[in-house]
Amino acid sequence: MFQRCPIIRRLFLTAMLLPIVTFVYANPPANFTQAKKKAETIFKTHRATLYCDCPYNEKKQIDLLSCQMQEA
């Protein structure tokens, strides 16, 4: 199938190799501080806690009433 169409073969090989290359260059954070900084940039547009999905503001204050909580 791929012998007749070299373009499809190249696309297939690219699709197979791309995830491998992506994982090789993905560096984990070296410490907790770096992990927090990365998490802030990832979740900047999604301001909700990871565990109970409660919204929080730019000052990192959780809106407890929206989660039916009185205190945290």
TrEMBL record:
Entry keywords, A to Z: Endonuclease, Hydrolase, Nuclease, Signal
Query: Does the record carry Nuclease as a key word?
Result: yes
Keyword check for Protein biosynthesis, yes or no: no
MF terms from GO for this chain are: endonuclease activity; hydrolase activity
EC number(s) for this protein? 3.1.21.-
Q: Where is the signal peptide?
A: 1-26
Protein's name in the database: Putative endonuclease-1
